[in-house]
Amino acid sequence: MTAAAHPGRQPPVTDQSDDKPGHECGIFGIVHPDADVARLTFFGLYALQHRGQESAGIAVSNGRTIRYHKEMGLVAQVFNEDKLRPLTGFMAIGHTRYSTTGSSRIENAQPFVVESALGPLAVGHNGNLTNAAALRRELLNRGVGLTSSSDSEVITQMLAGGEGHTWEEKLRVFMVRAQGAYCLTVLTRQTLYAVRDPLGLHPLCLGRLGPQGWVVASESCAFGPIGAEFVREIEPGEIVAITEDGPRTVARMPAPHRAECLFEYIYFARPDSLLHGTALHAVRVEQGRELAREAPAEADVVIAVPDSATPAAIGYAQESGIPYSEGLIKNRYIGRTFIQPDDHLRKVGINLKFNALPDNLAGKRVVLVDDSIVRGNTSGPIVRLLREAGAREVHIRVSSPPIRHPCFLGVDMATYPELIAHRMSIPEICAHLGADSLAYLSLEGLIRSTRQAPSEFCKGCFTGRYPVQIELVEKEVFEMR
Q: Over the stretch 422-466, which tens digit does the pLDDT of each residue have?
């Protein structure tokens, strides 16, 4: 789907029925007058592929028009030389998506590109608006036609037709109206805007590429592959405008306190990304150390569920003195089962994902470290796999607390009936998984590992207490399902 947005011409859209809103994704943006910005955006998205496996898109401005291409699929499947060649300009944004409460279909792929009174506009969004249903109804009542079920299109149309005479005014008005989680890259003819919600629920950072280039990305791991250097995080409630003259802050609208997503620290962000100036790998190793102190086990070997639990398993081994070893080999061509959009696909993926190493397991008492247990579909088959490989005992240790509540703020944490820790007690989960013992890291231990204050985080999926009102949102979401 390649198109240009410019005065007098609206990008083509396709027919679809209304479905569901919302998602958690990876976003990227770049301003560089002397670089192939589409190609650099491709490499930036490639580094953010772990944040979404369903669709990818790039939009580029040449100062007059915005051209874009987006399709369903992985970044490397969506883009090739023929698709990148027409995307010429000096500014670009990119997006890679997986759906949470929005359906997996091309109409929901991003960036969204529209024409407005101020010229062409492209928007990439990571997060989930908790008042999206009300905002959507307002747009429909005003006669605005919507082509997708995504709250990201709601954001795009709010900006395109919202109050204000400049893009900066429109962005300020949007931030007053919007509730929930959002990181945005907003591309206009001459300016790239980076926007982070007032609570700072999900990460967004700024980097520099040589003397003339500037980049923004969901995570700093996207900077290394293109030779950019991390500069700083975009602050909660901040709007940064980036032009060929560089970045400038045009608004600061923070909430009284931050509410960063703890799941970014546990699983979602890559371990080589920086949060609060610290590589997540070190934080996750500390989670494993905390877990070993809180939940020791008599065992012969510590292994990880690769790859996301490896740092925590290393920390557990270091603190406990039990040797660390590889016990499971992951097929790295299989995507993250957690972010497959369909429960059946998750279960099929598990059977293809791991092989055990009998020589490292036979006759041994094994500590199996995982970063989280959401639905419980993965852990039981892994325990059986380890026993079939000769493990004498399997003690599961989880480097996060039990996830008992859904997320309404941008991470697909499933519904209450799907969450195993909502349905079962810890002993019941242990028996269900077939493990010899099961223990989770406490919420206090998890927060200690971040070295941040407890008030800095959203703990909703663990406690059921969210930083924004969700009662009506939950009702609306499940009605729309």
A: 999 999 999 999 999 999 999 999 999 999 999 999 999 999 999
Scored b (16 or more CB within 10 A) or e, 240-267 reads: bbbebeebeebbebeeeebbbbbbbbbb
pTM: 0.89
- Tallying the residues shown for the chain, one arrives at 481
Residue identified by tokens 């009998």 is 358
How far apart CA 325 and CA 362 sit, in angstroms, is: 13
Q: 278 exposed, middle or buried (CB, 10 Å; 0-12, 13-18, 19+)?
A: middle
Q: Which of 68, 102, 110, 63 is nearest to 87 (CA)?
A: 68
- From the candidates 25, 183, 430, 458, which is the catalytic residue? 25
Kindly state the tokens that stand for 182: 């959002």
CB distance 460 to 479 below 8 Å: no
- Is residue 430 among the annotated active site residues? no
Q: Which domains does the chain have, with CATH numbers?
A: 2-256 (3.60.20.10), 279-456 (3.40.50.2020)
Rounded-to-integer distance, Cα 182 and Cα 121, Å: 17
Give the three-state DSSP class for 480: helix
List the end-to-end C-alpha distance of the chain, in Å, as a whole number.
28
| Sign of the alpha-carbon torsion through 58, 6, 155, 103 | negative
DSSP string, 24-50: EEEEEEEE-TTS-HHHHHHHHHHHTGG
Q: Would you give the DSSP letter of residue 212?
A: T
Cα angle, residue 373 at apex, residues 298 and 478 outer, rounded to 5°: 160
Write the pLDDT tens digit of every residue in 315-348: 999 999 999 999 999 987 765 544 455 555 555 5
Round to whole Å and give the CA distance between 123 and 178: 15
